Amino acid sequence: MSGISVTELFKTYKGSDEPTLKGLSFQFPEGKIAGLLGPNGAGKTTTISILCGLVRGDSGEVVIHGLKQEAAHREAIKHIIGIVPQQIALYPQLSAVENLTYFGNLYGFKGKALQQKIMHYLEIFGLEKSAHKEIHKYSGGMKRRANIIAAILHDPQLLILDEPTAGVDVQSRGMILQFLRDYNSRGASILYTSHLLEEAQSLCEDVVIMDEGKMIVQGNPLKLIEQHPACQNLEDVFLHFTGYALRD
Amino acid sequence: MLRLLATIRKEWQLLLRDKMGLILLFVMPLVLITVMALIQDAPFKDYQEIKFDILTVDNDHGRLGRHVKEGLEAGGQFNIIDSLDGKPITAEHAKELVNEGKYKISIIVPAGATAAIVSNANRIVNDISHRMGMTVSLPVKKGGDSLNVIIYFDPAAKKAFKGAIHQALDNFLTQVETEMLLDRIRGQLHNKDVPEAGTDTLPIRLQAVGLQEHSTGSSKEIDVISNSVQHNVPAWSIFAMFFIVIPIAGNMIREREDGSLLRMKLIPGSYLAILAGKMLFFVGICVLQFYLMMLVGIYLMPLLDLPQLVMGHHHGATILVASGIGLAATAYGILIGTLFKTPNQALNFGAISIVILSAIGGIWIPLEVMPAKMQVLGHLSPLSWGLDAINDIYLRNGDIDYVWKNVLRLILTGLAMLAIAGWVEKRRMN
């Protein structure tokens, strides 16, 4: 199928007794905004790392836009996806323009076309006035916004975001979420993880709640709430499936 | 190519923003080589180049005492001090001053020394004349007790220093005694009934065969001796070039920590091109460092009363060696940056390991003066390969034929370190 398909995915890290992923399976259709939700240690970051090809699963199958995640397709998949990691994956001593020019060059873009693209996105994300300011002088929200631009310079068909709104103010969060809706409206798929379940409820058309390396439930957030009359919102559904016990 | 050039530009931008890094890479090495050349100047000088104060007590007041003083002064190696505060020095006072370390050497010429030498020379001449059937009888002192010129050394004086002074004085005394003997023989030949003209036109030579040093340089002759600048400037330059390990390892760990490495790996295309760009940039920085330090040796050292650095004639070979050292140093930085998880770990290990490699590699003191086992160990250090190659060019006037083996060792070691780093990174991903 087109979109993302994960089937019976297992992963145990070296030196660890407990598997991180224990037969995880889910599917997200193409062109949707999907959420991968779960408590700390559920295996979300490992799942994303396997989707990107950074980490290899022990067994199971991952298919992205019809391409199996394996050595033969790894480069093709890199063209399809854009990753916004949890960390601000930019050089703090360089300005936004210098960072984006460098990463744009690595994608093979150069010259005026690249500069125009960079300035276009800096304007969209409200960073045009700080374009030449070093990243370490940015606020948390500005860093998050610049981090997203670095992931979309090559116009990926699938954008994967790992907690893109963590630690940002309401204004920046609103801006980021609106951008994701706009980007999705152009036909791109979006997969995002977050601990902000209210945000996920308003943004996602489909969510997977996972815990202890397995999928617990999948569906449209509103439908999931409807299916569980005791739950008022997605957070209630989340707690219903994952419980109240603290996680490491 | 775009990835490679973009990486070089990015590294350049990062370096320009890192003021401390710039100081570490370009200012500290210049200070280091200058200081090391200055403080190691004296130990590197031959004893012939250094002038020592020498306390001289002449109790002989004869020809020997005068000859010893004049001879020592004429050699240009000693400042003769025979009186302090206008008073002649006594043997006891001289001994005391040397023992206190105020002077390094004292020579006591005993009373009657000239008489003893004259008597000995007369005895030899009488004996020779007798054997030749001549009736000569020069005065000879009865009771042939030999006298000694006494030398006192500062107790802290090194064995090699004492040996060199002993040899110099012994040679000088032998020369004085021989001259006295020849004077007497010449006198007897004068007295003999032979024509006057014949004697002085055939002077007796003390040395029939002399010593002359020639350069071993193969083609264009250069006359370079291993002085403080010739050793310290290249040696500490290599040491400083290897210190590039610190910024490289720190840079790589930061890239891993802040996620930019992750982003680079998520971008399609070979990571090798990015790594090659990084390597080219830092090898270039190493070569630039090297030549800046050579310029200090050529232009700054003479202003500090040190010898000028001589770089040999084969500049192509020098660039090759500098690039080889840069490659090995950069690869070592990448390996450390890959192996260690925190900048602190990398900094400590990197710095200490370079100090150890430099110490055993002949950077601090030449390998030749180390114990045999340490010399074997020292020849395994990449820093010693670099230094050997530079010495081949600078001191032996060698070309690429002289240095290629050491350059190859540096390159292969660099490639091996990169391969290990690649293997570790791959294992980490898996």
TrEMBL record, chain A:
UniProt keyword Nucleotide-binding present: yes
Record-linked PROSITE patterns: ABC_TRANSPORTER_1, ABC_TRANSPORTER_2
Pfam families listed in its UniProt record: ABC_tran (PF00005)
Residues spanning the signal sequence: none
Keyword line: ATP-binding, Nucleotide-binding
InterPro entries recorded: AAA+_ATPase (IPR003593), ABC_transporter-like_ATP-bd (IPR003439), ABC_transporter-like_CS (IPR017871), P-loop_NTPase (IPR027417)
Residue intervals of the ABC transporter domain: 4-237
Gene Ontology MF annotations: ATP binding; ATP hydrolysis activity
Domain of life where this protein originates: Bacteria
Cross-referenced PANTHER family: LINEARMYCIN RESISTANCE ATP-BINDING PROTEIN LNRL
Name recorded for this polypeptide: ABC-2 type transport system ATP-binding protein
Species of provenance: Chitinophaga niastensis
TrEMBL record, chain B:
Membrane-related topology note: Multi-pass membrane protein
Main location (coarse class): membrane
Alphabetic keyword roster: Cell membrane, Membrane, Transmembrane, Transmembrane helix
ABC-2 type transporter transmembrane domain segment(s): 20-422
Subcellular compartments: Cell membrane
TM ranges: 21-39, 233-250, 271-299, 319-340, 347-367, 407-424
GO molecular function: ABC-type transporter activity
One GO CC term on file: plasma membrane
InterPro entries on file: ABC-2_transporter_component, ABC2_TM
Protein name (record): ABC-2 type transport system permease protein
Organism annotation: Chitinophaga niastensis
